[in-house]
Amino acid sequence: MRRALAALRSWTTSVPLAAAVLLAAVWGSHPGVFLAVVVAVALAGAVLAAVHHAEVVAHRVGEPFGSLVLAVAVTVIEVGLIVTLMVSGGPETASLARDTVFAAAMITMNGILGLCLIVGAVRARLAVFNAEGTGAALATVATLATTCLVLPTFTTSRPGPEFSPAQLTFAAVVSLLLYGLFVVTQTVRHRDFFLPVETDAAHPNAHAAPPSDRTAMVSVGLLLVALVGVVGLAKVESKSIEDGVAAIGLPHSFVGVVIALLVLLPETIAAVRAALRNQIQVSLNLALGSAMASIGLTIPTIAVASIWLEGPLLLGLGSTQMVLLALTVVVGVLTVVPGRATRLHGGVHLVLLAAFVFLAINP
Known about the structure:
By secondary structure, the protein is an all-alpha fold.
């Protein structure tokens, strides 16, 4: 009984539950200023709780399963949110999937990756990782992004940046097969390619005893609750974000970028904390795994949802977006090939993220 009461008193338990209760209370409403601040505080708490429970699960199951759990969990909930918005929205949601997936890819491949490389390089002079595993992940992300987000701009079966039903089915099947093949490679056939490189600068807590099965299962449940709170409260907060964006004269599409930044906060914090432990490979697993899951799981789900969704489904990127994506892939290859990176590599990726955000504000 005492243990149960102690668990309930723990902030890592109470905050996700409180966030879920708040989400149920405010879902579908347009909160005022005070309630928007409360939602923002609850959102921040849910993010920190999600990171804590993700690290508990990761410590129990080991890498690369730990980073895979967080990436897939966030993406599944994010996909559910996209489908919900598209079902309840109007014509303006035709490009929602494309905008959200592309924003997530740019944030993870440039923002999370660049920040972690800088943190690792500052801490240990060089950020060291496995080029084989990271290169395979980058190749998978590049293939998924080109197939699902670039090709629709150039196909001619439908007017505009849109797949025909047969083309969308092909892209969905290929995405699932490619993502499944990568997961098997990452967790079974070549798991060693995705494990942290042992260095003399290893964090002293890296070899701590793993938590019990019961503790890990509790953390899995609370992780899911926290992530539902993060994504749901980000959606509720989007009303206030839209008002703020409109008030300062920014394009409406920038709202998607802000929401993507909020939704990806748990992965960002978890990746940076791994970099502080000099586990750069874990950080890269999270960054590229999130980009891969965002594309590889969203497009098949949207393909199925399009059966009952009305209106066009715009997936093709514009010319500016394609240039940013191509440059991101090229820079990523040059970063990954040596298996080690400096602060300069991280800085280049962060500049690419800054270019993406700036052009989203000022297209």
